[in-house]
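ARCHIVE CARD
CATEGORY: sequence design from structure
SOURCE FIELD: tokenized fold
FIELD CONTENT:
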């Protein structure tokens, strides 16, 4: 049987299709328009009768003659500049002609120039008639009544009020955000038949997070696989991680992969100015999800309604957000049943969420979506480089991934887009490696301020400062490898040095001391060679002091305060002051001061030992304004330590090679014989060999 195309019905949580009612608004507007046009065309005049036709035969001159000759009994003057003449009986046949027999009021309408002139003329005529002993002609002045205008003025406002009330009831009240539906959930329902949907193939990296999310999708598709062993599906999963790491993208992939209804809302969608609206929307959301179970609910930025209760003393328990959270807690794990409804949520501020929301039974899993490592950045670059139509073949993805440590997936997407824009701005045919490097510089440091003019003395001070950073970091084992040094003003900085931070899984004291010494290299060069200090080391000193304070107060790495930590990872501690005594505070200050001074002295010693090389780097920087790691290597020599990034790339390549070799060994026996047992034995022998 041939299938006919049918329009997909729009579900609003109520189910079924409702017949579309005719819109009477246009009919009402048409009636008002017709009445208004009639009012304008009529101009307030009454409808003409048969007797009014004689008015076309006479003018103001005829009026004066008829009045002066005594053929008129009375005159009625209206404010419309119309004079109605009542003809005397003996002159009716003469003036009215054939209409005299049909005329009942014996009136002739004549247009007059003005009421003032008509008034002067009638006074003059009546005065002459009085002198002659004749009866004066009666003159009256009337104001014409505009009946149509009166009707419109009285009916139209009433009609408009009725129409406005109907519009309020049917138009505003019937919408999702209407007055009478303000408590309805504004969830967006994703259709499983959507063509441009996101799947797990579009999510690069995040293997651990994808594995846990895929398990939830698998349970919805094939629940018998888990229930046979007595397992239960998790009721909720919370995606936690920094901004731009792909939490919402994972949720979109779930919507694309799962063949079940997917309701998506933001945490701010529950918050409204009306009391009780948030709790009502939570109830309506779960009601819709239950009707379409099995289904998934995704709440983005859940910290908008899920922050810890009781923090705001002024609002107490009457806070609207707390009421919304209480209803959410009840719906997720209360006396009611939510079988077949899974809740996904995302936030980058898990530490402020209420502990009742994070307990098992509500959010059984917390999936951490962290910043991508080197291998994951390579995969993410592979995804975002696809849309670039003309890419230079010399662009190395491994190199780009090494140049962007600490970048999130959103940052990498921005790098690829900025590189394409820079290439187009420079009228290039392809996007090259240089464009990507400029894009990274643009995102990290800001735009180049080419109009910023520096004197020779300022330029020399900046060059010696940046050369100090480059020299010290190059000579330290755990210093970050140098990529580029520039003295071109960029953003808020007069100069900058780009490094490749080592992505370590664990950091020890030597690593932190080497990084601190590298940070102080610029100020050490100023004091050692320029015998002065400048304000350009503000950012360096801030980072070094914070790092030293963290080592003492958080990591327990100082000599006088070993193994002590004053860090509160929960954020629940209600300290009115510091969690330590004044004596301990003095010890922390003294230890931080000692660490900073020791690393400053160490940086000065390194620079004095390699003073000649430092001067060469500084002079080269003054000459070229931008130098790379190759220039520094030509002066200081190659570093004897291997970069951890290179070690990771080499380890990944070896792991991929081993996995491909194993797959080939397993696949070879299938080609030799059709005997399943012999294939298995031969394969095992080759693998063991």
């Amino acid at each position: 049987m041939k299938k006919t195309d049918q329009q997909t019905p729009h579900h609003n949580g109520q189910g079924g299709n409702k017949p579309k009612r005719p819109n009477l608004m246009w009919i009402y507007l048409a009636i008002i328009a017709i009445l208004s046009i009639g009012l304008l065309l009529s101009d307030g005049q009454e409808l003409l009768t048969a007797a009014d036709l004689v008015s076309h035969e006479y003018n103001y001159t005829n009026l004066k003659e008829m009045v002066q000759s005594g053929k008129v009994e009375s005159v009625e003057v209206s404010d419309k500049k119309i004079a109605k003449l009542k003809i005397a009986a003996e002159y009716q046949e003469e003036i009215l002609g054939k209409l005299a027999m049909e005329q009942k009021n014996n009136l002739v309408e004549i247009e007059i120039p003005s009421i003032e002139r008509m008034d002067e003329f009638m006074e003059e005529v009546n005065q002459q008639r009085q002198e002659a002993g004749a009866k004066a002609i009666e003159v009256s002045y009337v104001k014409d009544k505009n009946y149509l205008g009166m009707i419109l003025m009285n009916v139209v406002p009433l009609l408009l009020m009725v129409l406005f009330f109907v519009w309020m009831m049917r138009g505003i009240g019937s919408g999702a955000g209407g007055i009478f539906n303000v408590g309805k959930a504004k969830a967006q329902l994703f259709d499983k038949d959507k063509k441009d949907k996101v799947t797990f193939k579009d999510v690069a990296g995040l293997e651990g997070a994808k594995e846990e999310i895929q398990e939830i999708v698998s349970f919805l598709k094939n629940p018998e696989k888990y229930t046979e062993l007595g397992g239960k599906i998790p009721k909720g999963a919370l995606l936690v991680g920094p901004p731009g790491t792909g939490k919402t993208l994972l949720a979109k992939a779930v919507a694309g992969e799962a063949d079940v209804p997917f309701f998506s809302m933001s945490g701010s969608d529950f918050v409204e100015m009306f009391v009780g609206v948030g709790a009502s929307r939570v109830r309506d959301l779960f009601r819709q999800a239950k009707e379409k179970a099995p289904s998934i609910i995704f709440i983005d930025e859940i910290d908008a309604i899920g922050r810890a209760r009781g923090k705001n003393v002024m609002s107490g328990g009457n806070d609207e957000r707390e009421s919304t959270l209480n209803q959410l807690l009840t719906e997720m794990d209360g006396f009611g049943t939510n079988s077949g409804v899974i809740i996904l949520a995302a936030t980058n501020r898990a530490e402020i969420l209420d502990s009742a929301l994070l307990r098992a039974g509500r959010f059984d899993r917390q999936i951490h979506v962290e910043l991508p490592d080197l291998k994951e950045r390579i995969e993410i670059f592979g995804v975002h480089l696809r849309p670039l139509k003309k890419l230079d073949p010399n662009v190395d993805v491994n190199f780009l991934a090494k140049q962007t440590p600490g970048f999130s997936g959103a940052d990498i997407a921005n790098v690829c887009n900025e590189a394409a824009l820079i290439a187009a701005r420079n009228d290039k045919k392809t996007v090259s490696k240089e464009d990507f490097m400029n894009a990274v510089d643009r995102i990290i440091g800001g735009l180049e301020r080419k109009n910023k003019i520096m004197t020779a003395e300022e330029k020399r001070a900046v060059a010696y400062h940046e050369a100090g950073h480059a020299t010290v970091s190059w000579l330290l084992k755990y210093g970050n490898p140098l990529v580029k040094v520039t003295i071109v003003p960029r953003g808020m900085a007069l100069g900058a040095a780009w490094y490749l931070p080592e992505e370590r899984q664990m950091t020890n004291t030597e690593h932190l001391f080497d990084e601190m010494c590298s940070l102080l290299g610029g100020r050490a060069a100023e004091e050692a060679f320029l015998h002065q200090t400048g304000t350009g080391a503000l950012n360096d000193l801030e980072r070094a002091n914070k790092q030293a304070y963290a080592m003492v107060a958080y990591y327990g790495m100082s000599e006088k305060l070993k193994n002590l930590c004053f860090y509160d990872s929960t954020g629940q501690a209600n300290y009115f002051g510091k969690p330590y005594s004044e004596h301990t505070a003095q010890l922390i200050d003294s230890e931080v001061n000692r660490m900073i001074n020791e690393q400053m002295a160490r940086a000065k010693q390194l620079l004095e030992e390699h003073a000649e090389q430092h001067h060469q780097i500084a002079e080269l920087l003054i000459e070229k304004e931008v130098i790379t790691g190759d220039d520094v290597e030509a002066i200081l020599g190659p570093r004897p330590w291997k970069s951890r990034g290179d070690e990771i790339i080499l380890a990944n390549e070896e792991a991929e090679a081993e996995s491909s070799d194993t797959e080939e060994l397993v696949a070879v026996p299938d080609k030799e014989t059709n005997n399943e047992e012999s294939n298995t034995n031969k394969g095992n022998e080759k693998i063991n060999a």
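CARD ANNOTATION: The chain has a mean pLDDT of 75. The CA atoms of residues 383 and 430 lie 18 Å apart.
SHELF: design records, drawer C
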